[in-house]
């Protein structure tokens, strides 16, 4: 190939490269333009022109009061359910009483929409700053809804958020079906606008969490103004929060003065029990077993097993979302009824034990506070201790009885024999003349093969032929 042809080839290649570069650049610009247009349309369409009113404010902003130096935290893990709603509400109350900052450490795949919306409302009404902090793995779906609604949002490196589109769970097939009805989608988007965009969150990103199921890592979330900061751990988070000024929707602007110390608010027995039962697998098993045990117990006449089935059924229903307050009353009523039945039946067995278990669980599910039929924590603690004492006493007694029964069953069987026993003749007895004798306090028909035995003479049993004793006179 001569030099002229080489030059033509090189020029042709350069021309192709230039044209391709121009085409790719134009395509990228058009795609970016479309994405930008989509951003503008989504933000304006669903949230309008939302200004930042709450959350972190510039350091030169004036403030009304100081919050600190205490920092409390709770772990919002697993499924977001009614138990978590109660847990967050109680933690906010505790933080308000001590004028402390509350940190919600989120590590959840999501949960029930109603529970998450209730948590959002509690956060909005809080009189102290509530900080959302995604740790360990993620805060997807309902967890993202809670995070962006907190006054300050933070994430650990490596964690993710997003996928906020609601889904419907079909218990018969076990499948999750996305919900696209605007009647359900639009109210959730509006909640994000009112409780997220007003904290300075990117309104379009919030909308895309639902419509596009976007997911962000910590760096992306910070770059797109979905969160306020990235922190590697609690000390790092507290250090960044110290000296910040936060505007609260409940009214007022506060200055955070923290000393680096933090303390956990542990969940009570009620929260722990409800959160454990909310696991879909466990609640499904409890409901299924409860129904089957009730049906087979009633059909076979084993009513004690039906009581156990009722207990499992109620606990399973609580896990599926049944009102725990109503469930506690049902358990207390059934437990008292079973104990009454047990008092009128001999012994102490399954019915009484199930009744005590129902009363204990019913008390554990009672809400503690000052609303409704709630009882005070002190009274509940005393009552639970009393129930535990009675239950343990009955358990010890039952264990002792079972122990004695096992001991008896382990002993070798004793074969009783009447041979060699002594008694007294009632009638005159001969070899061919049977008569009655008294042996071991009982009347026996007997014969004598060693001569005639007169009445009232002492005899000894030397043999037995069927029901007939063979006796001899004792000299």
What does this molecule look like?
It is a single chain. It contains 14 helices and 19 strands. It has four domains: 1-46; 55-264, 2-enoyl-CoA Hydratase, Chain A, domain 1 (Alpha-Beta Complex); 269-410; 422-473, Nucleic acid-binding proteins (OB fold (Dihydrolipoamide Acetyltransferase, E2P)). Residues 30-40 and 370-375 have low confidence and may be disordered. β3, α2 (82-97) and β4 (101-111) form a beta-alpha-beta unit. With 475 residues, the protein is an alpha/beta fold. 49% of the residues lie in helices and 20% in strands. The chain has helices spanning 3-46, 82-97, 113-125, 142-149, 182-195, 203-211, 218-223, 234-241, 269-277, 280-300, 303-319, 324-343, 350-365, 377-410; strands spanning 55-57, 65-67, 71-80, 101-111, 130-140, 152-155, 160-162, 167-170, 175-178, 215-217, 229-230, 245-247, 253-256, 263-264, 422-425, 435-439, 442-448, 458-465, 468-473. The chain starts with a helix and ends with a strand. α1 (3-46) crosses α6, α11 packs antiparallel against α12 and α13 packs antiparallel against α14 (377-410). The chain is elongated, with a radius of gyration of 40 Å. Strands 3, 4, 5, 6, 7, 10, 11 and 14 form an eight-stranded mixed sheet that branches. Strands 15-16-17-19-18 form a five-stranded mixed beta barrel. A four-stranded mixed sheet has the order 1-12-13-2, with no helix packed on it. The longest helix is centred in the N-terminal third of the chain and has 44 residues, at 3-46.
């Amino acid at each position: 190939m001569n030099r002229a042809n080489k030059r033509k080839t090189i020029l042709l290649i350069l021309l192709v490269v230039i044209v391709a570069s121009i085409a790719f650049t134009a395509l990228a610009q058009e795609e970016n333009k479309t994405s930008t247009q989509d951003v503008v349309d989504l933000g304006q369409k669903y949230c309008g022109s939302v200004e930042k009113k709450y959350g972190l404010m510039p350091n030169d902003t004036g403030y009304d009061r100081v919050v600190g130096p205490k920092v409390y935290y709770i772990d919002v893990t697993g499924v977001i359910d009614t138990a978590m709603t109660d847990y967050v509400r109680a933690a906010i109350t505790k933080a308000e009483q001590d004028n402390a900052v509350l940190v919600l450490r989120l590590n959840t795949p999501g949960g029930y929409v109603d529970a998450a919306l209730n948590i959002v409302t509690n956060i909005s009404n809080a009189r102290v700053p509530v900080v959302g902090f995604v740790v360990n793995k993620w805060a997807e779906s309902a967890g993202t809804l809670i995070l962006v609604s907190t006054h300050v949002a933070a994430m650990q490196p490596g964690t993710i958020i997003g996928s906020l589109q609601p889904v419907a769970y079909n218990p018969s097939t076990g499948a999750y079906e996305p919900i696209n009805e605007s009647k359900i989608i639009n109210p959730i988007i509006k909640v994000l606008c009112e409780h997220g965009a007003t904290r300075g969150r990117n309104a379009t990103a919030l909308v895309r969490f639902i419509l596009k199921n976007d997911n962000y890592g910590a760096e992306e979330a910070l770059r797109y103004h979905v969160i306020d900061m990235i922190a590697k751990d609690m000390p790092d988070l507290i250090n960044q929060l110290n000296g910040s000024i936060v505007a609260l929707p409940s009214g007022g602007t506060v200055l955070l003065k923290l000393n680096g110390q933090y303390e956990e608010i542990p969940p009570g027995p009620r929260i722990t029990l409800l959160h454990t039962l909310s696991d879909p697998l466990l609640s499904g098993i409890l409901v299924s077993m409860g129904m089957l045990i009730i049906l087979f117990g009633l059909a076979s006449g084993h009513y004690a097993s039906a009581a156990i089935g009722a207990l499992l059924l109620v606990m399973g229903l609580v896990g599926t979302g049944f009102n725990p307050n109503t469930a506690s009353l049902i358990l207390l009523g059934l437990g008292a009824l079973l104990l009454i039945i047990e008092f009128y039946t001999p012994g102490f067995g399954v019915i009484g034990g199930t009744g005590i278990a129902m009363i204990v669980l019913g008390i554990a599910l009672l809400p503690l506070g000052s609303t409704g039929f709630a009882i005070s924590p002190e009274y509940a603690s005393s009552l639970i201790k009393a129930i535990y004492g009675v239950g343990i006493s009955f358990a010890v007694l039952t264990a002792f009885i079972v122990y004695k029964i096992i001991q008896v069953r382990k002993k070798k069987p004793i074969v009783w024999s009447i041979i060699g026993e002594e008694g007294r003749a009632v009638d005159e007895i001969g070899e061919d003349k049977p008569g009655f004798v008294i042996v071991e306090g009982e009347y026996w028909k007997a014969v004598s093969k060693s001569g005639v035995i007169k009445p009232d003479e002492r005899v000894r049993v030397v043999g037995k032929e069927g029901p007939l004793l063979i006796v001899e006179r004792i000299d």
